[in-house]
Amino acid sequence: MPTLCLSMIVKNESKILSRLLDSVVDHIDAYCICDTGSTDGTVELIQTYFEKYPHLQDKGKILEEPFQDFSYNRNVALQGCVGLSDYVLLLDADMILEWKALDKDSLTKGDAFTILQGGPGFKYRNTRIVRNSGLFNYRGATHEYIDCPPGTITVALTEEDIFVSDVGDGGSKGNKVERDIRLLKTSIEKEPNNERHYFYLANTYFDSGSLEQAEEMYRKRIAMGGWFQEIWYSWFRIGHLAMKQEKPDKALASWLEAYEIDPRRVENLYEMVKYYRVAGKKKLGTFFYEKAKDIVASLSEQDKSEFLFLHNDIYTHKLAYEWTILAYYQGVRDIQKEWVRVLKHGSEYSLMGSLISNMNFYDFTIPIQYKVENNMSVIHQGIRFQSSSPCLLKNEKEEGYQMNIRFVNYAYDKSTGFFLPHPESIVTLNALSSLHSDLSPSSMKFLPLTISDPPRLYHGVEDVRIFQFPSGDLHFMGTGYHQNNKLGVVTGKYPEDLDSPRELYQNFNPSDCEKNWVFVHPKNEENPLIVYRWHPIELCHYPENKLENEIFVARTIPTPSLFSMLRGSSNGFHYENQMWFMVHFVQYTRPRKYFHMLLVFDENMTQIQHVSSPFTFEKIIVEYCLSLVVEKDRLLLSYSTWDDSSKIAVVDKSSLPLHDWTLI
C-alpha cells in the first residue's frame, strides 16, 4: 500500500490544529510541517500530539523557516517530505479532511490528485495529493498553486471518496487583505503576463470592498484571455460589483457575458432570476428560471466539479427556492418538490422562514378518502370536557383498533389562538376507546384522573402516544407537569399508570420544557428507543426500570440542518421493511399554524428513504396529529383541529406527496 506524508505550513495555529490532525492521523505515514514563526505553542503542540501515535514515531519533521511568501514556505515543507513516503498530502491547519471511501492503493494510478474542497454551498477543485518525487513545487506568492512536471498523470477524486472541509479560521488572518495585495502586486511586477495574479488581485479587492480597483483588475484579466473559468468568474463578479453600485442594467449585461463564456453555469442566471423576481418582473424571472433549471438538470456532479468556485447552494436549492415564489404568479400551485429540495439542502433559516410563510399562497391539503369523527363533550368531576387529540393503535392479535382520546377543559378563541376563557388549571382527561375494523366505535371508558387540592397549573397527561413493546405490554409517553413545576415527558404502562406516571428527563440538552418525544423500535435493536429530536436524530435508551428516570443518547443519525424545526408527532410505525413517522413544524403567527410531514426510514433507522412535502388536513390553523397506522393501501392518521375535535383521516397511499430522498 502506498504511503502518505502530511505537508503543511503553520503559524499560531494552536487553537485549531488538533482538529485537522485528528482528521488525518489515521491516514498518514509521516509528516513534515514548516512553522513560520509561531509564538503560541504550535510547535510544542505538534510534538506532543504525534508522540501519542507509535506508527509516526521517528517519521516526522518540524521545520522552522521565517515566512517569505506562500510558495517559498510551502516548497520548504514539500521538499522536506522527500524520502518519507510515496505521496504527499497537502493541507492547511484550518481544514478538516473527510476521508470517506478512498482506497490508498488507488493512488498508484496517478501522480497528482485534485480534491474538492469548501463546504456544502461553495466548493472547488485543488491539487491536494502529489507523488513524492521532489519534482512538484508551488508557484505564486499567494493563492499559490502546484506546478506539475511534464507527463504528470492527474486524477480527479470524487467527493464520495474524499473531501476537504474548508473551515477558514486559521491563525494568520489578521492582515490577510493587506498582505495579499502586497504579495500579488509584487508578483505582477515580476510576472506581468501571468493572468492568475490579476485574477486573485481582483478577488482580493472585491473581498475588501475596493470596487473600482476590483473591476479594473477583472477587466484586465478578461482581456488577457486564457482559462475560461477565470474569465467566467470575472464577468460574474463584475455583475456583483455593478449591483453594489446600484447599476442593475450593467449587472445584467455582465451576467449575460458570463453565459456567453460558459453556458453550463447557472450562478449568473440565478442572480438574474432573483433580480427580476424582486423587481416584480415575474415573467422575465420565470424565463431565466426555466433556462437555469434545464441546465441544472443536464449537469452531472462531475460536470460541476470542473467549475471554478462553484456556488453549489444555487444548484442544490436556491434556484428551487426562487420558483416557490415565481410559481404563484404563473398560476402554478404545486411547489412540493422544490419545497423538499430546500428542506434537504438548505441551511439558511431565513430562507425557510420565508418558504413557510409563502405556503399560505398554495394548497398543501392532503387528499383524504374519508374521515371518521369521534367528537363529544362530557361532564366529568363537575368539569366540562371536549374531545381533542386521539392516538390510534392497531390491535396485533385481533381485528380492530384501540384509541386514546384526550379530553380538555378549555377552548380556543379561533381569531387569536388564546384560551377562551382561560381556566385556572389546564386539565386533561383521557379515555380508552375500542374501534371496529371499519373504525366505528365499539366501546369507550374514561381513565382515572386525580386532581390535586389545591389545584396545580396542569393536571393529567397530555398528548398520550401508545406503543406496543416486544413483551406485548402497552406503554405510553406524553406531556405532564413535573414536580419541579415544569412541563416534561412522563411515561408508564398503558393504561394502568396514566394517573401516576413516571417522570423522564435528560441532562444532555438544556431545556425548560420537554415534549414531543416518541417511541421507535428499530429492527436491529433489542428494545424500543426514544426519538428525542430530529437534527441530528438522537435515539435514546428508554429506561424500562421504574426506578430510573434519565434518558441517554444511544446513537445519532445525521440529518439536514433544517430538520431542527421538526417535532415528533407519532411513534415510529414499522411496516414491512420501513419505519414511518409523522412529524410537524409550526409557523409562529398568532394563532400558530401547524404543518405535517411524513418521514420514511429503513427499518433499522440508518437512513431516510422518503420524505413528504408538508401538508395540512383541513386548512385549519391549529391541527395536531399523534399517530399513524400504515396498512397495505392506506394510512390512518389521527388528529384534532383547534383541540376540540377527534378525527381519523383515511388516506390512499398512492396519493401521498412522498419524494424519494436520494433523488431530491
From TrEMBL:
<dbReference type="InterPro" id="IPR001173">
    <property type="entry name" value="Glyco_trans_2-like"/>
</dbReference>
<protein>
    <recommendedName>
        <fullName>Glycosyltransferase 2-like domain-containing protein</fullName>
    </recommendedName>
</protein>
<feature type="domain" description="Glycosyltransferase 2-like">
    <location>
        <begin position="8"/>
        <end position="97"/>
    </location>
</feature>
<dbReference type="InterPro" id="IPR019734">
    <property type="entry name" value="TPR_rpt"/>
</dbReference>
<dbReference type="Pfam" id="PF00535">
    <property type="entry name" value="Glycos_transf_2"/>
</dbReference>
<dbReference type="InterPro" id="IPR029044">
    <property type="entry name" value="Nucleotide-diphossugar_trans"/>
</dbReference>
<dbReference type="InterPro" id="IPR011990">
    <property type="entry name" value="TPR-like_helical_dom_sf"/>
</dbReference>
